[in-house]
């Protein structure tokens, strides 16, 4: 059995069969995974131009004249603490009159006293109970001009010559920041305010109470600062000063920018007066009353030359101002300037300077009389009198006393005369054998070129004439006599007046005014 099995294995392979049919196609495989993100495409081309936008609003209209439009020149709205300061009936002055005799140094006051009343007489200024002395140098000069000196009184900041109520670093004609004035603080407290002057109302002294500028001579710009709501208005003044009296009509009408500021002010409820009669006729209409008086095209006339029918006196202007301002029961601030004292001194015309000083002194008396009608003891009133600087006027020689000046007595305007001995009453001669006047100037136009030997012999009639220009040591051009650098006097009466004594800087006066008023 084993053998048969073996043979079977070796011979049993049959022939190859035919190939089988192909199987069916398999199913599709699964979808492959996504490929990686492609690179960023290139920048597209520029789009089409958009449609034109709407037309913008029309801008404000500027000046049409030579000056570019200016922004508000003032320091902005002031936050007054006055009402809180006087709560509970705190005593204070709520009526302040600040008198400024421009250039009225002590030699000028002395000469005016003798001119009007003699050596033993008194000015009304002399009767004020408190007296002190003021240093007047400016930030950049030991001899100040009116702009920084008055500004120092009004702001407490020492400024450079030519600059009005600006920050200390402001250069003349340069850029700086406005600083608030006493008048502006008064407006912020709800007081009424005013300026009265015999100069143009845009001149340096009055301007230092209400304007801010680095060039005192830019009076067209200064005038704009007075017009409520107008281009260039100093908005710190609120609705504007209540009283503006003086000269300078030409700064308000006939301007290069074609603005008529008188018309604009009248449209803001200002009553306008152009002469003494119209001033007198201004009625008193209430606490909000406003009045503008411009009585000449430029400065008002010297008192010696004033026509009373046309130009009011300083006394008349100041009295009317007080009557208008005191209608505001809350309070008022008034500045009164005898401005032409300074101009006569620049000319070395002593007679006109002294007559204007007497007129200034009379205005003080007139205002005191008016104020005492409602405040007899000056319980609520402070009156301050001072000067912004002095001049180079001097008193010469050991002169015999002269008494007051009259039509027959030259007085202090006359010659130096011997006071004793056989020559008593006769002119005293200089080293050249020539008589000389009591009053003279350190500099000015009337300087004898060489020795006085060949000069005309002076007489009382010559030196006391209206137009005589006193002799000077240093020759200057006509009108070019300079300010002096000595201290000036300050006098006061009324509430807080006792603080005005001793020596002080002009910047300290500002603090004394605010202390007395609580402004």
From TrEMBL:
| Region annotation (Disordered) ranges | 11-81
Query: Superkingdom of the source?
Result: Bacteria
Q: One Pfam family name from the record?
A: Collagen
Quote the biased-composition stretches of kind Gly residues, using this chain's numbering.
Answer: 38-50
Give binding positions for Mg(2+).
102, 203, 205, 337
Q: Molecular function terms in GO for this entry?
A: alkaline phosphatase activity; metal ion binding
Q: Which PANTHER family does UniProt cross-reference here?
A: ALKALINE PHOSPHATASE
- Family statement: Belongs to the alkaline phosphatase family.
* Protein name, UniProt field: Alkaline phosphatase
Q: Which organism is it from?
A: Labilithrix luteola
């Amino acid at each position: 059995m084993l053998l048969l099995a073996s043979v079977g294995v070796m011979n049993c392979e049959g022939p190859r069969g035919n190939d089988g049919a192909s199987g069916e196609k398999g199913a599709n495989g699964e979808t492959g995974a996504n490929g990686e993100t492609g690179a960023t495409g290139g920048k597209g081309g520029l789009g089409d131009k958009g449609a034109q936008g709407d037309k913008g609003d029309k801008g404000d209209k500027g000046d049409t004249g030579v000056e570019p439009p200016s922004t508000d020149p003032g320091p902005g709205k002031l936050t007054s603490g006055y009402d809180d300061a006087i709560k509970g009936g705190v005593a204070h002055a709520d009526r302040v009159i600040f008198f400024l005799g421009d250039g009225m140094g002590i030699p000028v006051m002395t000469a005016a006293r003798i001119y009007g009343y003699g050596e033993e007489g008194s000015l009304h200024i002399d009767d004020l109970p408190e007296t002190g002395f003021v240093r007047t140098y400016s930030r950049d000069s030991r001899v100040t001009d009116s702009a920084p000196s008055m500004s120092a009184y009004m702001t407490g900041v020492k400024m450079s010559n030519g600059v009005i109520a600006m920050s200390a670093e402001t250069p003349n004609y340069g850029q700086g920041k406005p600083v608030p004035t006493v008048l502006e603080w008064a407006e912020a407290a709800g007081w009424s305010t005013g300026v009265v002057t015999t100069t143009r109302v845009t001149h340096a002294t009055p301007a230092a109470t209400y304007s801010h500028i680095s060039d005192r001579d830019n009076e067209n710009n200064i005038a704009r600062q007075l017009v409520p709501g107008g281009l260039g208005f100093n908005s710190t003044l609120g609705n504007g000063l209540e009283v503006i009296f003086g000269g300078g009509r030409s700064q308000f009408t006939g301007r290069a920018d074609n603005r008529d500021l008188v018309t604009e002010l009248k449209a803001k409820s200002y009553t306008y007066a152009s002469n003494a009669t119209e001033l007198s006729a201004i009625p008193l209409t209430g606490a909000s009353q406003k009045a503008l008086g411009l009585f000449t095209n430029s400065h008002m006339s010297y008192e010696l030359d004033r026509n009373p029918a046309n130009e009011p006196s300083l006394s008349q202007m100041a009295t009317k101002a007080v009557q208008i301002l005191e209608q505001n029961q809350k309070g008022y601030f008034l500045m009164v300037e005898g401005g032409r004292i300074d101009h006569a001194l620049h000319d070395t015309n002593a007679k006109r300077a002294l007559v204007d000083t007497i007129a200034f002194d009379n205005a003080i008396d007139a205002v005191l009389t008016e104020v005492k009608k409602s405040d007899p003891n000056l319980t609520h009133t402070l009156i301050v009198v001072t000067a912004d600087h002095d001049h180079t006027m001097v008193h010469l020689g050991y002169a015999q006393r002269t008494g007051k000046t009259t039509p027959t007595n030259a007085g202090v305007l006359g010659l130096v005369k011997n006071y004793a001995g056989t020559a008593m009453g006769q002119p005293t001669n200089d080293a050249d054998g020539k008589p000389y006047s009591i009053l003279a100037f350190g500099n000015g136009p009337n300087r004898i070129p060489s020795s006085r030997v060949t000069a005309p012999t002076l007489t009382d009639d010559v030196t006391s004439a209206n137009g005589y220009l006193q002799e000077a040591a240093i020759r200057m051009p006509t009108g070019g006599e300079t300010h002096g650098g000595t201290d000036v006097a300050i006098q006061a009466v009324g509430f807080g007046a006792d603080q005005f004594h001793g020596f002080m800087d002009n910047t300290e006066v500002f603090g004394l005014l605010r202390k007395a008023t609580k402004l």
